[in-house]
């Protein structure tokens, strides 16, 4: 079924891949973004409404101008470390901003939203694989901001009949295989792009944060998930809300954890370049291990990741970083 989708944060890394997939699936798309970290070049030819979640009038104007069947909401501040230093900034943008969006949706009679949540809602895990029954316990303001929005969505389902799907991504990485869009954060804080920027010599050296975690080599373990596999889960979530009332939550990862050193070794092999690194102190707010059990997304949504090997994820990211079309390193 063809839908009219408003993508908040659609000019960002994951949002721009979502926009591409929505267009390929035949949907009509409008992007709402303040371009604080997004790139207009990532959504060329797509209608962009430039505005801020913190300005309710910007949101009202979008819903007045466009017919919207459902919202996919990526817009947020995303750096765990920064959220520890500036919690107010994170709560305002991620929680107040989302409340403004939900108010505008309600005024406009739009009752469906897919929300970008995160593995950070779990904090320090109590089991090797994290499914949806795992207790919630964020350990940084970023994770708390997402946890709070998940609660708001549940309460608004009860109060107003809002339908929602919160997708908890583990570590998003990789890029569209066409090489035209990819991750272009500035500053970059994520491991995979930093490793590749080091392979390119754009960064002199990588610092590995923490070598004394209780893991097989002392460095943190993460579950990397390809950005297009994340996007495909959102398409399925739109269908799911047709037949399911209420607020739903799904964990999205590949179920395989890799240590930070294993990521560096894999990238070294694939790029055939040296990747110098040193061991540095732990970064505030990091969990030792975060690996998903995504059985529920597979059985209930029918989700089937296509780019699940770490090699494929890093290869597609490498294609992009080697020749980025926009962002801080384009043309360098
Ligand atoms: N990247 C990951 O590994 C990861 C993991 C888990 C969850 N997430 C979540 O996925 C979502 C997208 O992440 P991303 O990596 O694409 O981030 P991103 O920074 O590339 O994209 C976020 C987009 O939202 C926009 N934005 C931010 N605040 C806004 C505001 N107040 N008003 C309007 N637009 C605003 C930015 O300009 C940007 O285009 C975020 O909600 C993030 O928390 C990301
Ligand atoms: O220069 C660096 C950067 C990162 N790391 C390490 O690499 C691992 C992964 O870090 P990322 O910053 O790439 O990703 P996070 O796991 O911190 O966070 C990501 O996943 C989270 C969910 O767990 C959030 O959703 C968040 O938005 C998203 O950035 C961590 O152990 C981190 O300490 C380094 O060693 N050196």
From TrEMBL:
Residues 6-313 form the NAD(P)-binding domain. One of its GO terms (molecular function) is UDP-glucose 4-epimerase activity. Keywords: Carbohydrate metabolism, Isomerase, NAD. The keyword Transmembrane helix does not apply. One of its GO terms (biological process) is galactose catabolic process via UDP-galactose, Leloir pathway. PANTHER family: UDP-ARABINOSE 4-EPIMERASE 1, UDP-GLUCOSE 4-EPIMERASE. Belongs to the NAD(P)-dependent epimerase/dehydratase family. This is UDP-glucose 4-epimerase.
């Amino acid at each position: 079924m063809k839908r009219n989708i408003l993508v908040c944060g659609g000019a960002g890394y994951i949002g721009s891949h979502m926009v591409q997939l929505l267009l390929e699936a035949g949907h009509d798309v409008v992007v709402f973004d303040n371009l604080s970290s997004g790139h207009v070049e990532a959504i060329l030819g797509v209608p962009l409404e430039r505005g801020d979640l913190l300005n309710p009038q910007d949101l009202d104007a979008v819903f007045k101008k466009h017919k919207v069947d459902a919202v996919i909401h990526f817009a947020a501040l995303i750096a765990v470390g920064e959220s520890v230093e500036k919690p107010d900034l994170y709560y305002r943008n991620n929680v107040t901003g989302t409340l403004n969006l939900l108010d505008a949706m309600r005024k406009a009679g739009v009752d469906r939203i897919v929300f970008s949540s995160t593995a950070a809602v779990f904090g320090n895990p109590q089991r090797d694989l994290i499914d949806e029954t795992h207790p919630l316990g964020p350990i940084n303001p970023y994770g708390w901001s997402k946890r709070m929005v998940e609660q708001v969505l549940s309460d608004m389902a009860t109060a107003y009949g809002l339908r929602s799907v919160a997708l908890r991504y583990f570590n998003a990485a990789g890029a569209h295989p066409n090489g035209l869009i990819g991750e272009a954060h500035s500053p970059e804080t994520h491991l995979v792009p930093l490793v590749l920027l080091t392979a390119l010599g754009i960064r002199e050296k990588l610092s590995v944060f923490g070598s004394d975690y209780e893991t097989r080599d002392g460095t943190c373990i993460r579950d990397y998930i390809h950005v297009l596999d994340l996007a495909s889960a959102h398409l399925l979530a739109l269908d799911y809300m047709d037949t399911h009332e209420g607020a739903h939550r799904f964990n999205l990862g590949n179920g395989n954890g890799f240590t930070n050193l294993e990521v560096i070794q894999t990238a070294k092999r694939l790029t055939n370049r040296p990747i110098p690194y040193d061991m540095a102190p732990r970064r505030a707010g990091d969990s030792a291990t975060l690996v998903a059990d995504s059985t529920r997304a597979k059985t209930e949504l029918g989700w089937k990741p296509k780019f699940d090997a770490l090699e494929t994820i890093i290869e597609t990211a490498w294609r992009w970083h080697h020749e980025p079309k926009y962002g801080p390193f384009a043309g360098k």
